Amino acid sequence: MYEKEIRKKSDALDSIRTEIDFRRRKIRELEKAEGSSLDRLEYLEANIAASRRYLLLLTWKIDSAGATIALLKDSLALAGIQLADRKKLMRQRLRQAYMAPRESPLMIFFMARSPAAAIQQTRYLEAVHAYDCALAEKIDREQQSFNMQKGMVESSRAELDGLLAEKTGENNQLLQEEAERRTIVQEIRSKEKTYMARIVELESARKKLDEMIKVLELKNKFTAPKRRLLPALPTAAFEKLKGNLPWPIDGPIVGRFGKIVHPVYKTVTTNKGIDIEAAPGRSVKCVASGDVLYIGTMRGLGKLVIVDHGSEYLTIYANLDQIAVSTGQRLNAGSTVGKAGEGDEESGSQVHFEIRKSTDSLDPLNWLSRR
Predict the structure, then answer these.
(1) What values do phi and psi take at 306, rounded to 5?
(2) Considering the entire predicted model, what is its pTM?
């Protein structure tokens, strides 16, 4: 029953060891590939839990090995005492045999008082010889048993030393992983503060942008007809392009329109446009003909351009590094409005794009061509 328990625990140790080694390889791969802190933290926390289970099983196995060694030592000590007693007795028998006169069967026959006494004497000597032979055999068997038990003690001691070394190594690895976990948690918390500050900044920028668009629309409505040098934009021309507008820049969408829940911080924010990943310095294009209504810089949105397409439709291009247009300039579809900016460590390089009907935000994916 005890051996069955040992096998069960040994199998569990092997299984957990395999699990730990797999996760440690994944952590090293993530470090080389500069994987996300969240992924590394997930593997680390699972590995720390597995490592603690492994250390508990190792401790159990060490205790079992210690108990086995104690039993073997007791058995070895008893075997040593028995062997020493047998050897002592054998030495006495050898001394007696050495000191006793050697008598041949013929001498015994002639020195005996009678033939019966001679036979009895001969049988006695044969019994003594058989006893001595049996004693020698016992000593040989007990010596072999003693050597075997001594080997088992040495083997168990070597196994115990190995287990103790493994426990020390695993415990040191656990301490390193716990320290790394604390570092990553601090890093995530630091990023969270930066992220939350950026969210506050973005919310403030969006409110300012809404207010600015209202002011610009009023200004454009009452002053533009008096000073317009360019012909008016065709009424409803922009609306007819819904679903077929070209993209301002090629790249994957990294921020969708509407409410967004952060996967880690669980914050809820509203994106009034879309964010498109873009390599720094790439050209950002105007999606339809229109007049540049505003160019400027706004904290949280960087350099931006607002284009008026008529009938209260506006497009906004933000997070630019360079602006290639000027206020009042007439643009065609495909005209360059600026260059994509560098972005920051948290969000990377991306262009923010919005479509508005007056102050109402529209989902750009309903207007841009499918790709």
Answers:
(1) -115, 125
(2) 0.49
